[in-house]
Amino acid sequence: MHHANPLNLNRLEPAEGRPFEFSSMPPSVRRMKEDNGMKTKHLIHVAGLCLAATAASAQTPVLTVYTYDSFVSEWGPGPAVEAAFEEVCNCDLQFVGAGDGAALMSRVRLEGAGTEADIVLGLDNSLMAAAAESGLFAPHGVDAALDLPVAWTDDTFLPFDWGYFAFVSDADTQAPADFRALAASDLSIIIQDPRSSTPGLGLLTWVKAAYGDEATALWANLADNVVTVTPGWSEAYGLFLEGESDAVLSYTTSPAYHLIAEEDASKVAWIFDEGHYMQVEVAAKLAGADAPELADAFLAFMVSDAFQSIIPTTNWMYPAVEPSAGMPEGFGAVVSPEKALILPPEDAAALRDAAIEEWRAALAR
């Protein structure tokens, strides 16, 4: 949906496994503290970095940022971020949509040191360990006071937003209390493929973090509830809005989109007793960036009020730094889980392959 999209991540190519059932669908929906003096000081600093980066060039320099498709869609943050950064950078910011978050990592790894990207924006805490192991990324050098519910000390991957995974349904659907109750019910769900989608991978990590060795049995019981598996978030949410399932894997913040953009209070997020897994979306500079100074300037800009104030009502996530004007009113209605689940990136990476295999085996039966 244009102005109809709590977006999140988009598509790779259909992965093998459970068949996809696509129809033509409307544009999808997503995902999806500084005072004024500090804001001005920050933007002056960013502008100074940009001028330093461009002083030696008579032509307009280009900064290339790989990101997920819905970020650069007309309803996503990309257009507003591009306009705001180009006002201070004297450069040409070019976003390149590269599928979903997992697809971003695959593309950059495939291109290696020869990649055209200066920055990758849209990886998350489940992919950070693999990204770090690639050796393709450099420290960001940004010192910012982040408003995250967890401590953040990583010097390479810089957060730009965060949220909790959740199933979203119509308000008149009886919500299950947890995954076991969902598996025992007749409720239908649409989920995303963990091999191409960060929400899909987040779901597997969520189940593993909550149930440990019992995850295999849980997936065997959940398989009958799954209507279809899509490559990315956008397809899944679009099918849900067309009435193809009772619920869809999304975020606790997705109902805020419907409330703010559509004045529609009919969508709710299910809150599970076992807690909800947290996603932190990050950006990082390529070690071999063609425009390293501009990349540094962009990352500094990314945690400024000018960027962060765009996030809530375009990416429909919590910003990594709360905007000086506060959060939009509709976010006050967002229900937060009582228990937050998150694994260190190394632990999430260590269980990834086994979690995907047990998921595949369950859905293949």
How does this structure look, described?
- Helix 6 (198-211) crosses helix 12 (345-364).
- The protein has 12 helices and 12 strands.
- It is globular, with a radius of gyration of 20 Å.
- It has 2 domains: 36-162 and 280-331, D-Maltodextrin-Binding Protein, domain 2, CATH 3.40.190.10; 163-278 and 335-364, Periplasmic binding protein-like II (D-Maltodextrin-Binding Protein, domain 2).
- The model is unreliable at 1-40 (pLDDT under 50).
- The chain has helices spanning 36-54, 78-89, 101-111, 128-134, 179-184, 198-211, 215-222, 233-241, 254-262, 292-302, 305-308, 345-364, and strands at 62-67, 92-97, 119-124, 137-138, 158-170, 189-192, 226-230, 247-251, 267-269, 276-286, 318-319, 340-341.
- The protein is of the alpha/beta class and 365 residues long.
- Strands 1, 2, 3, 4, 5, 6, 7, 8, 9, 10, 11 and 12 form a 12-stranded mixed sheet that branches.
- The longest helix has 20 residues, at 345-364.
Provide the descriptors you would attach to this structure in a database record.
single chain; about 375 residues; alpha/beta; D-Maltodextrin-Binding Protein, domain 2; twelve-stranded mixed β-sheet; 12 strands; disordered N terminus
